[in-house]
Amino acid sequence: MILFVDENDELQRLDNFLKTVLPDFSRSKIQTFIKSGNILINDAVKKSSYLLKENDKITIDLPPEREIKIRPQDIPLDIIYEDENMLVVNKPSGMLTHPTVLEMENTLVNALLYKYAENLSDINGEFRRGILHRLDRNTSGLLMVAKNNKAHEFLAEQIKNHTVMKKYRAVLKGDYPKDEDIINFPIGRNQNQPHKMMVREDGKESTTILKVLKRYGEATYVELTLVTGRTHQIRVHTAYMKHPVYNDTLYGAGKGKVTTQEQVLQSYYLRFTKPFSDEIIELEIEPDEKVAKVLKYFEGRQK
Predict the structure, then answer these.
(1) How far apart (Å, rounded) are the C-alpha atoms in residues 224 and 222?
(2) Which CATH architecture has domain 163-274+287-303?
(3) Selecting from 3.40.50.1980, 3.40.50.920, 2.170.150.20, 3.10.290.10, what CATH number does the domain 2-62 have?
(4) 83 an active-site residue?
(5) CB within 8 Å of 162: residues ≥ 6 apart
(6) DSSP reduced 3-state for 27
(7) What is the pLDDT of residues 87-138, one digit of tens each?
(8) Is the pTM of this model over 0.85?
(9) Which residue among the candidates 136, 181, 278, 288 is catalytic per the annotation?
(10) Cβ proximity of 120 and 147 under 8 Å
């Protein structure tokens, strides 16, 4: 198995990361594999404490009978666009994009494997078949999926060069002070809480364009365009501006008066170039159940 580290897993210890990839093995067993050369970083043996860097190549060579296989599951997919090389799926809130050490089933990848079997890219390994980019578990919306490695590379290059346009809709806590704003603060991992990200001087350049759609006094409905695509970018940027995404308990919003499955955030718009052509694909979906529920509540309070 070969994996490539993306920015979401940067600065994790090698053994911690591998525990999510090899959930059937103990940490001590994984450390033994690392020492014995069964697991290589950029074709070289590294220590278990090695901190991962973006684009590191991890080669895992274990006995075939112990290889981890993700189980295909018959889970309905809301496919918004599809051609011979790719598809765009509307991921529901509450679904993980791909398996983790704690959850090996009921993810988007399990569903994709059932429908497409081996007809998915494997550049990012078995755990991330077809996956080009991710949405947080409780963020719904549009995700691109590659059916083969050439399409994966074509689309990944667009993501890398920021030529894919991604727009989100969200409800923020409080009355955002500007009608339009460019939030430009570097983001890196929170070293005290590795599951979180934070604004930090030595982080990666991160830019979010915000536009207010409607004000409700105690909340603000906004459109957010990602110029960069860092982990938790919108959630970190809006929280840093003291207006976190409504119901985002991880980044300080607390629970609002309207109960939803965590953050009220939806990836609703995608624009990209179709693989191996010059055709521009533009997709947009309606507000999801969470967004509609919260907006209905605040609209009612204004009457």
Answers:
(1) 6
(2) 2-Layer Sandwich (3.30)
(3) 3.10.290.10
(4) no
(5) 227, 228, 229
(6) helix
(7) 999 999 999 999 876 688 999 999 999 999 989 999 887 889 999 999 999 9
(8) no
(9) 136
(10) yes
